Every structure is written in structure tokens, then in C-alpha cells.
Amino acid sequence: YQHTTLLLSISGKMQLSIAKSTTVHSGKRNVSSVAARPASAKPSAQHGAVCGCSACNLPVFSGSNRRVVKASAAADQAKLLTRRAMGSVTKGSPLEKYEYTVPAVPGAQEIDVRVTHNGLCHSDLHMAFDDWGISKFPFVPGHEVVGEVVAIGASVKNVKIGDIVGAGWIRDSCRRCLACLSGDENVCEAGYTGSIVLGNNGGFQDVMRFPADFLFKVPPTLKPEHAAPLLCAGVTVFAPLKRHVNRFGMKVAIMGVGGLGHLAIQFAHAMGCDVTAIDVFPDKEAEAKKLGANHFVTWESVTSGKTPAGDKLDLILNCASGKIDTGKLLSLLKPDGKLVQIGIPGGGAVMNVPLQDLVFGQKTTAGSIVGGRKDMMDMLEFAGLHGVKPMIETFPLSKVNEAVEKMKKGLIRYRVVLTEDFKDW
Fold this sequence. Notes:
Blueprint: E1 2-10, E2 14-25, E3 28-37, E4 60-62, E5 67-69, H1 73-78, E6 80-87, E7 96-103, E8 110-120, H2 122-128, E9 145-152, E10 164-167, E11 170-172, H3 178-181, E12 193-194, E13 207-211, E14 215-217, H4 224-244, E15 251-255, H5 261-270, E16 274-279, H6 285-291, E17 295-298, H7 299-303, E18 313-318, H8 326-331, E19 333-341, H9 355-360, E20 364-367, H10 373-386, E21 392-396, H11 400-408, E22 415-419
Parallel strand pairs: 15-16, 15-18, 16-17, 18-19, 19-20, 21-22
Antiparallel strand pairs: 1-2, 2-3, 4-5, 6-7, 8-9, 8-13, 8-22, 9-10, 10-14, 11-12
């Protein structure tokens, strides 16, 4: 919507402010509403300008039918809505039923999403136990979130009521640094805002409020239950493959056939790579090959000097969440090969790299953290086109603690998806 404000001053005493709201639809310019605004009214402190949203006390549009909604900013701010959730109330405690309130009307750039599906990620557990020192209790976990848009802020243009959208690990970024302007919000120079970091509330709730610019439409080629784990796990492995796979037939190894690795195998296979899966457990061989791996090698074989596929590798993605001898992985690389670290073990793990192999082999070690907005959109489209989907086990949200215990014991193959069951609470 475009809002134009005309301010007239007559004899320095009387002011008249006239606001005209217009919208462009199908190439035509149509006047949708005209409203007079009292001279005493001020621009929204949040927006710094008279933008026409409810906070600025002007008529705004709501929903896809573009009907006008007249709202009183003061009245709206006084109203609160209760959110029902499964929250992490104290460090290390089981998740429990938790309620909190939000203003009745979303902010200008916010969206309310009725949550239908959540992925359960190891990062949710790290946050619940404050393993990284960035948790603020209480908070609502969940950063692989899919649901239906049920309310939108006045300035939101990228989605409409009824759209199926998803949210991932990143909630916001500075939008101004070179990284953000390049589409790499995941390495924002000011530090991105995490979905569940420092008290922000994620998707383990009935309706989640989230910034519009970091919500993504789920393509119809993906089922919601399959899309949810892709919003963190999927983009986490897709982004480095997109960045480093630069020719057909590259020899790529995936270390760890788990929640991340089983998706990495599928993406690498779809990109035309010669894929080797490496894992501690030999019983994962058949499954890894079914997912698209051309070769399988046990970690025990690697430590004894066996080279996967009888040849050196161009690229290794270390998706293992446990501590791994990275020197052994580095030895599997060709000259100019790359080792990308994705898994983050707790306890301040350190990468030990033999410098002689690194230098004389001109090898590279790198890290990768989720992905920017462009990566997310590319990943969802790619997954839908190539049939990449997670292997999942589903639980109702109220049974999340059962899922957590099963995950901690390593009994999940390979991602947990939680379904909404608030009507039964």
C-alpha cells in the first residue's frame, strides 16, 4: 500500500492532515480509502512516519479481500491475547504447559501463524539446557515451524491470510551490513536474531508471532510435515553444498548419517555428486544407499586408513554432533579439498587440524551456519522439485518430552515432527 500525506498550514494556526491510501492491483491504480486525520495525531514512534497502519490511527487493509479495518491504536494496544505453549521454564527441566500474552494486533511487519507442525531439533535441546549460554528462561522452543497465516501486520505484503508458511532458526538481522545486503543474513555483521534466543518464543505454541521478512512460503510440492525439518536441518546442509559444489560428479562425503546427514546425502545426490556416507554404525549402510549414497564407509575403517570409494574426496560435510577427529577427515581430501564443519558439539569443542596436511595439501577448513533468506527459498524450491524429504517420526506436541527422551537416546530416524493438539488440552 502507498500512503500519501498532505500537510497544510494556514496562518500558522490551523493544520489539516489528509491521508490517502492507494493500492496497485492488476496494473491499475485504485483509491481504496480516504480519511481525515486530526492535526493532533502524531506519526507512530515505531515507524517514524505516518505509514497508515493501525499504530498511526489510519484505516488499514486486512486479509486478501482488502477490506478496510478501522482500528483505534490505544484500544488495540490495551487488548492482549493469550498464547498456549509447551515452554522451557527453567534450565534443564522438562518442557511444560506455559502461557504468555501478546498484543491483540500484530506489529506492522509481523505475522501471526497458526502452527500445525514443528520439527524437534538438537538445537532446541541445547537451548533448553543453555549449553551455549544464550538462553533466557522462560521461552518457547521450536525453530522448524510450519503453519497457516491467520493475521498480518499493516505493512506486510509478502503473504496473505491462509498462506502456508515456515520459519527457521533466524528471526531477524540488521538488514544494513554487507552480509545482509548480499543475502547472507546468517552471518550478519551485527549478529542475527535467533528465533528462540534471549527469550524469543518459537513454534511450540498454538499461534506464533514472527517477523514477516523471515517467514517463507511452503511450496505445494512439499507436505507440511516434511517441510518443517527442512527449515533448519535442510537449509543447514543445503547452503554449504550450494556454496561449494561447483561441478557435476564431485566426490562428496557426508560424515554422520543422522538428522542432518540423511538430508545432506539426498541434496548432494540431487546435485549430481558422487556421494560417500560415513558413519559409526555399519547398519546404516543400506539406508544411506537408499537415500542416494554411492558408497558407504564406517568410521572405524576411516581411522584405520581406508579411503572412501578408493579415492580422495573433493568435499566433506561433517554433520556429526559428537566429537570427531577432524585430522582423519582432512586426510581423506584431495589437494585443494574442503572440510566443512556443520555439527556443533557442546562443551566448547575445538577443531584440531594437522597443519602440515593443511598447508602442503592446500586444503581448506570452513564452517557453515544455517543459511540466508535466499538460501532458504532456493532450498525449499529445490527440495520440492527433487523430492528431497526427511524421514520423520511424529508425536503430538503434548508428548514432546517423550520425543526428547527418545532423541537423546539416539532412537529417532531421523527427525521428530510435532503436531498441534491444543484442542485436546
